[in-house]
Amino acid sequence: MPQRFALFVFFLFSASSVLRAQHMDIPVKISGTVHDLSSGELLSGVNVKYGIRKGTTTNSYGFFSLVAKDTPVELVVSHVGYLDTILPFSFFRDTVLEIALRPTLLSATKLDSNAVKVYAASAPGMTAAQMGINRINLEQAAKLPVIFGERDVLKTLSLLPGVKQSGDGNAGFYVRGSSAGQNLILLDEAPIYNASHLFGFFSTFNSDAINDVTLIKGNADARYGGRLASVLDVHMKEGNNQQFHAAGGIGLISSRLSLEGPIQKGRSSFLITGRRTYADLFLHLSKNEDVKDNSLYFYDLNTKANLSLSPKMHLYFSGYLGTDKLGLKDQFMIDWGNKVATLRLNSILGAGLFSNTSFIFSDYHFNILLKSGNNRFHLNSVIRDMDFKQDFSWNSQMGAWHSGLSSIYHQFDPTHFSGGNDSADYTQYKSLQRGWENAFYVNYDGKLSERLGLSAGIRLSAYSLLGPGTFYRYMPESTDPVDSVKLRSGQIGKTYLNPEPRISLAWQLDEQASLKAAYSRNTQHLHLLSNSVSTNPTDQWIGDSYNIQPETADQLSLGYYRDLKAYRLEAEVYYKWLGNQVDYRNGADLTTTDDVQSQLLYGIGRAYGLELFFKKIQGKLTGWVSYTLSRTETKIAGINGNEWYRAHQDRTHDLSVVAMYPLSERWEVAGDFMIATGNAVTFPQAKYRLNDQSFFYYAKRNDYRMPVYHRMDLNFTLKCKPHRRYQASWSFGLYNVYGRENAYIIQFEEDPDKPGKTVAKQTSLFRWVPSVTYNFKF
User: Fold this and answer.
1) What are the Cα distances from residue 712, in Å, to 82, 654, 733, 736, 768?
2) Nearest to 162 by CA among 679, 710, 630
3) Nearest Cα to 576, choosing from 230, 232, 233, 164?
4) pTM of the predicted model over 0.90
5) Whole-angstrom Cα distance, residue 575 to residue 641?
6) How big is the CA angle at 637 (ends 635 and 639), to the nearest 5 degrees?
7) CATH number of the domain bearing residue 102
8) 116 lies in the same domain as 265
9) For residues 675 and 628, is the Cβ–Cβ distance under 8 A?
10) Is 416 exposed, middle or buried (0-12, 13-18, 19+ CB in 10 A)?
11) DSSP H/E element including 497
């Protein structure tokens, strides 16, 4: 009996060893989510590694998936500002995990400081095949000096290579030579059509509501589409599902407040942030009757709620509402704003398979009211979207696959003019325009060898005109329509179908350096119409039509990246071919014309340049230097004799220097300096008189330049003495330290003292702008 029992045990042990050996040859899929231990917030960009040069990072929703060929597997999970976590595995089957990372600040209060390790996130250009990617460090961005002391993500973007700010008093930005309307700005997947408050002095993004920000400069993978220049992907915080917190700030002209906490601890949470300026409250205190009843303010509200339906399924709702109002008593009023909402369901369908389903609503509008005597005029414009998106991510032994589709219903009212008086009606009766935009994509990320990485995909986009409505056709030489097409309700008219291939390759030279090359084609079906040199609230959006064809951009990029531990160096060159570019006729009227398409002309463009980015990431002194050398040109039939001319966003040189330094345990200083070639502008080349009046003659568009722009800013941060449940700090900033009067507008007019003599009059917005802000959190 004992011998039989021993033989039975030996048989089981031998069989299990054989089975174990067999399982070791079978790849294991390990997937799951990574979140913050203290708040429950899902973390994007977390490194999940095993072995040497093997692993992945979490996506925007905190999900990761990898395939391990050799078992057992030991995972190392690391992220900036968190302790590394080592997870040993001794099993041999597919697994779904929930991993919690402990923040270093939380750990430092309980552990010896020598045990705390901080891992710097690897530069996207070093390891991933994609290129032209910048992730904004929100902690650093909070320290940088900005106008009026309001932390601003968009202003931080303008300090990066290849990104150019529209100018003082404007939130628009240009990426690699493209116009401001060619940037896709997403807030929790919802498009933001105008990202500015108070004509650009503030952006729509409240820093207290933001979790992460990623900028992709034209080489996005096939998941993104709809714009030519870049993708600015902004994700809101989810809210703390462990305990209640409040935070905010009080400044000279604006204040903000943020509330977050659990709805059901560990399973659901909420976030509410609000912000408002109160310059109008000071106007009410004035004794001047012409001033006290004026309006000048904006407010915005961010909300988010999430619910864990199961370990593998999460439901999210996020929303944003922002409104600006500027008015002169009851004589003039302009208001504009965005409303967006996203309902999203994340699901882990199996080991390595992730699903994201989204329903999105977006609305942007502006309204202008003008009253003069008995005359009353009203001008408004609206663009409204309803969007469905379905995305899948699947990791296999060969790499990661992403596929999905989107369907967007667009509704436009480019300009609607109404008004009159008791005896006359000047209303323009126009029908809304509708469009249906669809896209399907497939993208692959993987490795062709140990050192050669690949990201390749294709996006197929389609745009269809929808009825009801009458659509007119125009010839380039005339503003009068040559014919028209009338569509019934729900009838599909002209449809544009465009394939958009994308490919990126990364060659790892050694542990510290890599070379990359990328090609991408992007198509844009929505067009921003503006006859100003910078974005403003009255810019109009319009879709493809029988006249306007989809804009296209083919971009070729090459890059070199080197990680020197304490330093990082990135160098990229690019060339971009632009097709079906839209510009306006000389003397165009985009506001009151019956059909704005009659004022448009079409052509091609090109942009090319060199971008250098040198960043210091360790030590007391941190910061970066960015430099861009570039050229942007346009060729439009009917403008400048059909020859190439500079686009207004063309700047030859653009240099930014950013530095941050802790003066003591409580004091920190940050500063930036920037200098750039002035934008291309159109100035008069001659003057003539007719009936005792002077008229200026404009020959060539964008043939002159604004003066060189340069500025220095400083910001000092004082951390208040720490309390157990309360944190606070003071921020003291000075915008434009040496008082440079940069030109905002240059106008030409006759000298009143010397008739016949023309003088150039420069208008500057700011000289010195001090700011004081008190920030708190408990």
Assistant:
1) 34, 14, 11, 5, 10
2) 630
3) 230
4) no
5) 25
6) 75
7) 2.60.40.1120
8) no
9) no
10) middle
11) strand 492-508
Amino acid letter, 632: T
Torsion sign (Cα): 418, 420, 297, 761: positive
pLDDT in tens, 401-433: 999 999 999 998 877 777 777 667 777 666 788
Average pLDDT, the chain: 83
> Is the bond preceding 191 in cis, omega lying within 30 degrees of 0?
no
Contact of 628 with 164, CB cutoff 8 Å: yes
Residue 428: inside a domain, yes or no?
yes
Name the domain count of the chain.
2
Contact by Cβ (8 Å): 443, 401 = yes
User: What is the sign, positive or negative, of the torsion defined by CA atoms of 481, 485, 489, 491?
Assistant: negative
Neighbours of 393 (CB within 10 A): 24
Q: Which two tokens stand for residue 516?
A: 């990359």
Question: Is 207 within the bounds of a domain?
Answer: no
Dihedral, 745, 751, 752, 757 alpha carbons, nearest 10: -150
Residues 343-377: tens digit of each pLDDT:
999 998 877 789 999 999 999 998 888 887 788 88
Give me the mean pLDDT over the 493-517 stretch. Answer: 94
Which string of DSSP letters, residue by residue, matches 464-490? EEESSEEEEEE-TT-SSEEEEEEE-TT
First-last CA distance in the chain: 71
Among 227-231, 280-284, 293-297, 411-415, name the one with the lowest average pLDDT. 280-284
Question: Which structural domain, as residue segments, surrounds residue 397?
Answer: 230-777
Q: With CA atoms as reference, report the closest residue to 656 among 270, 173, 72.
A: 173
Tell me which residue has tokens 């992945």.
56
